[in-house]
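User: Could you write out the 3D structure of this protein bound to magnesium ion? I've included everything you need below.
Assistant: Certainly. Input first, then the structure.
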Amino acid sequence: MYLKGEDISFGYEKKNRILNHVNLSLGSGELLGLIGDSGSGKSTLGGILSGYINNYQGSVSMDGKKIPSKGYNPVQLVFQHPEKAVNPRWKMKDILNEGHAVSQDILDSFGIKKSWLNRWPNELSGGELQRFALARALSPKTKFLIADEITTMVDAITQAQIWDIVLDIVEELNIGVLVVSHEKKLIDKLCHDVVFLDDINNV
Ligand SMILES: Nc1ncnc2c1ncn2[C@@H]1O[C@H](COP(=O)(O)OP(=O)(O)O)[C@@H](O)[C@H]1O
Ligand SMILES: [Mg+2]
């Protein structure tokens, strides 16, 4: 199965195109790195591929079909700031099971402790919160993961731990991952292939 962005063009303002005729293809089980300078449009492209930005030109498809905007999104986006992806007034257990019941297996894999489930988001560290975000995103219904700087806010040891877990799960579920990062070292370690946004973006 392939996730494809074809001939994608987009600007937040009319006169200022950030993406211009971009093509990108990601296969099931593939780990593809996306590198680019800060502000070059990586997160914008991730937002388009995962359906959070709609008013772009071009097409995003999964095996040639448009991705349905209702129901479970098979293209899950996890980004750098997990605190912005959760409702601060919900307990972690409610956040976790908002879309679907997250399996005990996944919780165990991420080392999510029972006692954390009764906490508010601000009672967890950034790394702990990111484990929740990933546990929620990696359901059996997920086909692709857009991992947008998901470990930028944690130390090197935690970064390695989190990626070890993610790699195990995506391999088991045959999920394709777009690893968005400005850290070439991390991408070289994780990915089969890498693209530089500047090389595929004709701005
Ligand atoms: N919601 C927004 N409204 C207007 N401009 C934005 C918005 N989000 C991002 N931008 C601008 O779009 C450009 C690309 O941003 P982004 O995709 O976040 O880049 P990257 O992820 O590569 O750092 C930047 O110049 C940024 O300031
Ligand atoms: Mg970004």
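The chain has one domain: 2-200.
User: Perfect, thank you.
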